[in-house]
From TrEMBL:
Keywords: Coiled coil, Lipoprotein, Membrane, Palmitate, Transmembrane, Transmembrane helix. PROSITE patterns: SYNAPTOBREVIN (PS00417), V_SNARE (PS50892). It comes from the Eukaryota. The chain crosses the membrane at residues 89-110. SNC1 and SNC2 are vesicle-targeting proteins essential for normal secretory traffic between the Golgi and the plasma membrane. They may also be involved in vesicle fusion. It is found in: Endomembrane system. One of its GO terms (cellular component) is transport vesicle membrane. This is V-SNARE coiled-coil homology domain-containing protein. Belongs to the synaptobrevin family. The keyword Transmembrane helix applies. Residues 1-24 are annotated as: Disordered. The keyword Acetylation does not apply.
Length: 113
């Protein structure tokens, strides 16, 4: 048994593996850490972009709410104007019908009396 292999009482001495060179392990760990750091940087950039998009969407939603409120006010104003216009038209029609009835009925009544 060589001195560089740690002793493991659960593994028979003939099955214990010889560890890799320490430098290759360090290089593999550094490569793995670099990959992880790259992935984390990408994730941070994606989160920042998502935050910007959410802010943009929130601004658009606020603008839409303001526009909807203005539209509602305008629609109510138009509805009231149309209601008054309709009322005036009905009053004019009633007045015309009354005048026609008076023009038709008064001469008939005066003629028979």
């Amino acid at each position: 048994m060589s001195s560089s292999v740690p002793y493991d009482p659960y593994v028979p001495p003939e099955e214990q593996e010889v560890p890799e060179e320490p430098q290759s392990k360090v290089a593999a760990l550094r490569a793995e850490i670099d990959d992880t750091v790259g992935i984390m940087r990408d994730n941070i950039n994606k989160v920042a972009e998502r935050g910007e998009r959410l802010t943009s969407i929130e601004d658009k939603a606020d603008n839409l709410a303001v526009s909807a409120q203005g539209f509602k006010r305008g629609a109510n104003r138009v509805r009231k104007q149309m209601w008054w216009k309709d009322l005036k038209m009905r009053l004019c029609l009633v007045l015309v019908v009354i005048i026609l009835l008076v023009v038709i009925i008064v001469p008939i009544v005066v003629h028979f009396t």
